[in-house]
Amino acid sequence: MGEPTRDGTKAPCTRRGFVARAVSTSVALPLILRPREAAASEEGTNEMLTAPNTTETTIVLNVNGAEHQVAVEPRVTLLDALRDRLGLTGTKKGCDHGQCGACTVMVNGRRIDSCLTLAVMHEGDRIVTIEGIAPEGELHPVQTAFIKHDGFQCGYCTPGQIVSAVALLAEGVAAERGAIQKAMSGNLCRCGCYPHIVDAVLEVQAQR
Ligand code: FES
Ligand code: FES
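Structure tokens for the assembled complex are given below, as produced in the milestone run.
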């Protein structure tokens, strides 16, 4: 992972970095699979139709202040580990390609798209999901402001928007409307609630 950004933009879980890691895995797979496929073809079997053997590894993820042992294949994204292994479905899967921000979580205080990073890369990291934003059951001021300002319609983008806004406010770099819009630009809202979301962030900002 690169250095933390200070301009309020998303933490640099970059596409280039992700692709580099993915390539190192995907280059190896065909080399492993090819002999099996060739053998299956020669023997006239349907082995090619079966899933290749996979190897799970057990890792410990610190999520919302609690440690969880999780068995994952190395290719499993943090997003899928949170949703499918830990049942933390508040973090949404939108595009699964780093384009919408629905999967935003905080890792060591920085916002990242959890669909663009692998779970095995985050042992020892402090991960906060939307479920950890208000652990005592009382709404976080950002959540209260979203409700007050109608910051959502369908609500699908809302967990990512709220996590992003909480991190943004902690970063303290976006104090006025334009800067907040820019710093939140990695979170898309198909319902078009952007003005209301910015109103909510501005209100919490003013309370500080
Ligand atoms: S689901 Fe991760 S950015 Fe869209
Ligand atoms: S509230 Fe529907 S996508 Fe944002």
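The longest helix spans residues 15-43. Residues 93-96, 98-103, 113, 115 surround FE2/S2 (inorganic) cluster (ligand 1) (CB under 6 Å). Further analysis is deferred to the final report.
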